[in-house]
Design a protein that fits this description.
about 190 residues; mainly beta; 10-stranded antiparallel beta barrel; about 15% helix; about 45% strand; globular
């Protein structure tokens, strides 16, 4: 019996080491080494969010980088009761692209659950994500643009199109102001360039 236990232990040890040998060696930090992998760095932090039109409070948002930069989480708390949501952004270092899943407590309504992919890095290092929302009266094209401004703010614009992208309607337009920074609100002074 002791001989069988010894052989069983040796077999398990060999199987464990063989399995470990088959895993590829980790690359240092592939998501941080690529320019696109750092595309959301400007957005990481704790934010007060104000409406771009009049500077009234819209909510608070916390953006955190995790897993050596391969993931970014968003935790949104709006000023209205029940206006909460979370995003998980994931960077695929093989495809050089970010994907987003946004979820709220009501995934049955249009916009309550979204899947988007980064479509590009635009002028002034703005990033754009786009996806499609299934709605009872037809699909809605949904795009979000995050633009870093020189004064440290970030402008987020969410637009919807019901005609396949021919025309777009802004459904959310806000400035993110870092908590603890001077409140310049919705001032259009300065620019992202």
């Amino acid at each position: 019996m002791a001989k069988i236990s010894t052989w069983l232990l040796l077999l398990l040890a060999f199987a464990s080491s063989a399995r470990a040998d088959r895993l590829p060696a980790p690359i240092s930090m592939p998501c941080r080494e690529q320019v696109r992998g750092r595309a959301l760095d400007f957005w990481v932090g704790d934010w007060k969010v104000v409406n771009a039109v009049d500077g009234t409070p819209a909510g608070e948002n916390r953006i955190a980088r995790l897993l050596d930069g391969c993931a970014v989480t968003e935790t949104w708390h709006g000023v209205d009761k029940g206006d909460d949501g979370m995003s998980l952004f994931t960077y695929d270092a093989r495809r050089h692209v970010w994907d987003q899943v946004w979820v709220t407590q009501d995934t049955s309504r249009p916009g309550g659950l979204k899947h988007k992919t980064m479509t590009g890095i635009l002028y002034a290092n703005a990033v754009r994500f786009q996806g499609t929302i299934a709605a009872p009266k037809g699909d809605i094209a949904d795009r979000t643009t995050l633009t870093p401004w020189r004064d440290g703010r970030v402008r987020q614009t969410i637009e919807w199109s019901k005609d396949g992208g021919k025309t777009w309607k802004t459904v959310f337009d806000a400035f993110y102001i870092r908590k603890g920074a001077a409140n310049v609100g919705a001032s259009q002074a300065g620019d992202p360039h």
